[in-house]
Structures are given as C-alpha cells and as structure tokens.
Amino acid sequence: MAMAIDTLEEMIKEGLPGCSVKIEDLAGDGDHYAAHIIYEGFAGKSRVQQHQMVYKALKGKMGGELHALALTTAAA
What Gene3D superfamilies would the database entry show (predicted)? Predict the structure, then answer.
C-alpha cells in the first residue's frame, strides 16, 4: 500500500507546524520519497534528532505504508 505525496506532506506539516516541506517521488511508485524539510524547531538538534522528529510526525507509517524516505533537514 503506497502513501500519496499529499498525505505525507500533510502529516509532516501537522507534526512540525510552520515547517517548509518539499517532497519528491523518487521511483514513481508512491513508496520511495525524498523530503526536504526546513523547520525552526530543528535548531540546536542533531541530524539524528531532527530525523526522529520527522519519523514521529509520521505516526508509525514509516516501514508500513511508506517504504523509503530520504530526509534532508535544516533549521530555519
């Protein structure tokens, strides 16, 4: 079961209010995405902590509906 780009973007924006998100479908299959996220809340956090915040926003969908997500994160 694939996840729509709109759903993925909505979940990230809901979990990280005020963030800027750009999502790219890497394989055209709705299952392999790259997300570029800029969020003030990432300030002072390590890259691992930033990615954990994104995974938390996805509410357990990673590894299920969403097979692969390459993340690029930055503080605003």
Answer: BolA-like
CA–CA separation, 30 and 46 (whole Å) = 29
pLDDT digits (tens, 9 = 90+) for 47-62: 999 999 999 999 988 8
Total tally of structural domains belonging to the chain: 1
Query: Could you tell me the CATH number of the domain that includes residue 64?
Result: 3.30.300.90
Q: What is the pLDDT of residue 73?
A: 98
**Residue 37: which domain range?**
5-74
pLDDT at site 56: 95
Instruction: Give me the numbers of helices (H) and strands (E) for the chain, helices first please.
Output: 2, 3
Whether the CB-CB separation of 15 and 51 falls below 8 Å is answered with: no
